[in-house]
Design brief:
The chain has about 160 residues and is of the alpha/beta class. It has one domain (about 5-159): Roll (CBS-domain), CATH 3.10.580. Helix content is about 40%, strand content about 25%. It has 7 helices and 8 strands; from the N terminus they run H-E-H-E-E-H-E-E-H-E-H-E-E-H-H. The strands form 3 sheets. It has a 3-stranded mixed beta sheet. The protein has a 3-stranded mixed beta sheet with strand order 6-7-8. It has a two-stranded antiparallel ribbon with strand order 4-5. The longest helix has 11 residues, at about 20-30. The radius of gyration is 20 Å and the shape is elongated. The mean pLDDT is about 85.
Length: about 160
Amino acid sequence: MKAYEIMISPVKKVKETDTVRYVIEKFIENRISGLPVVNERNEIVGYISDGDIMRYIGKHQYRFIDPHQFIFIINDDHEDFEQRIRKLLELNVMSIAKRKVFKVSWDVEIETIASILGKKQIKKLPVERNGVLVGIISRGDVIRHSFKDSTLTSQMEKG
């Protein structure tokens, strides 16, 4: 089975010129946790996930000091949580998106897709054809299509 047989298309995506505010609106509106980022030619230039947002809003600059076996944690970050949120919303998506994106060609076999998703510990894999985003595949898509004709599915349908 090939990527184009199981991929979701059209793909929900954001542009490299969008703000993080717009990305979060798309996450909430579509009940999703990640989106490919594309340029004006629909080429994949990044990927933004809820994890990228969590890393930004949870960021603190800590210094660890250990005088005489006692450990002190000093927060050097004077920006409060709400200030970071306001700042984050106005950032360009590419300022926090991953630029190294694992992706597959539209004609790659499902076994390769499963291997990448498992080994790289990622949830979704953008699919491209001739360098252009054409679909996306999640772990759930691979599982659904891998087992749809199995005895497991037959047993589950019987109840």
